[in-house]
């Protein structure tokens, strides 16, 4: 995989939404055998957002999409495609995207979900880019939306402290000369490591039963140390060769937006690339790991507060269940 040929694809607008309820590490430590110090030192997370009982993933996705469309000045009736990256859909089917299409009143748009662990962000974005670049679609809304809090076991300190809820969205469209553009994409998968992050029960391999519920198999199971090692080992080499294919190196990148899973992973990847941590866009201390929404939220929040300089190069990269991983290069 490599260079994006065809039409110039630009980011026309961005938006994000996080639920109002803040759950701090201190609050978690009241019911869980954990401490604020442990969570901050091992992950960099201080607090996360948790959706209200009457909020669904589609509600979060809608709010982010609405904000992104307003930001882009694009009317819902001009949207051709809505893609939602999620691992915590309202229901397995129908997907979240058709709900959002209806809520937005995007009457002309197609809509589908993408599920690829936390890398769903990059996969969904790549599909949106390909659609605009090829001329198939003019305006695409790509959303990452999660309510992971509903699929974690809150008594498991190894997983529950890591995740948070939220959504972010980008509107992609054809760009003019002088506007930002997506340059290249690479998507990878190592399915031999499919047991690193799993939600075991509730589908065909293990249909839901009294037994699966009793054992909590409808919640996320994660081999945290294996995931940690995988990201630290695989991502630096992958990112170096990804950039080499575009004839550039880590030093040519002004901004790194890596999946917001763990501050130690972000720092370790950047250190192996000999890049200063100052170049990372980071918000995980406030939102935790929002899975397939993390890159979208971080990018939309960044763009709300500041902008890229013309010509800045930004790497978006994620890893997650599968194990899948990928990267996208954007030139502002
Ligand atoms: N609070 C306090 N202690 C905790 C804890 C918590 N929330 N979670 C685990 N511990 C304990 C462990 O039980 C272990 O105790 P022990 O030595 O008595 O057995 C000790 O802390 C060290 O555990 P370990 O798992 O080795 O810690 P770690 O430094 O590797 O951090 C993770 C654990 C999960 C934070 C880290 O491995 C990680 O971030 N992995 C990647 C996860 C990820 O990114 N997943 C999403 C991918 S999309």
Can you walk through the features of this model?
There is one protein chain. The chain is α/β, with parallel strands linked by helices and 332 residues long. It has one domain: Thiolase/Chalcone synthase (Peroxisomal Thiolase, Chain A, domain 1, 3-Layer(aba) Sandwich), CATH 3.40.47. Helices cover 33% and strands 23% of the residues. It is built from eleven helices and 13 strands. A five-stranded mixed sheet has the order 1-7-6-4-5, sandwiched between helices. Helix 3 crosses helix 4 and helix 8 runs parallel beside helix 9. It is globular and about 55 Å long. It starts with 8 loop residues before the first strand and ends with a strand. 48% of the residues are buried. The model has no long low-confidence stretch (mean pLDDT 97). Coenzyme A binds next to helix 2, helix 6 and helix 8.
